[in-house]
Amino acid sequence: VTGSSSGFGLALIEAVLAINERVVATLRDVTKLADLQAKYPAEQLLILPLDVTNTAQIAQVFKQIEQHFHRLDVVVNNAGYALGGEIEGIPEDEARRQIDTLFWGPVAIMKEATRFFREVNPQGHGGRIL
């Protein structure tokens, strides 16, 4: 689950953990999940730093998932944020950062997830991207 620090991402990982399933929570500041990390064992909860605009970090996260859980069933592309204001008042660099986070980040996650589903998961298992 990308964007696990608050909102839907946090609610989703809490719900998954509550039914005793395993989850990988990714977020830019892993200290925000210190309470959950103290509550759940590493066999159930893996917390990893991730900025979805950093493709090298995305590849590293998937490598760590492979080493830790050896498979992956569902990827939830949830990272994002909103910009407010008049279109002409938003600086172009801020708008481009947002597009990188909301569009190109999820594209990079999907590419790596698809590779993982095909090459790492057991033959015929696949996976889901939400």
UniProtKB/TrEMBL annotation:
Descriptive protein name: NAD-P-binding protein
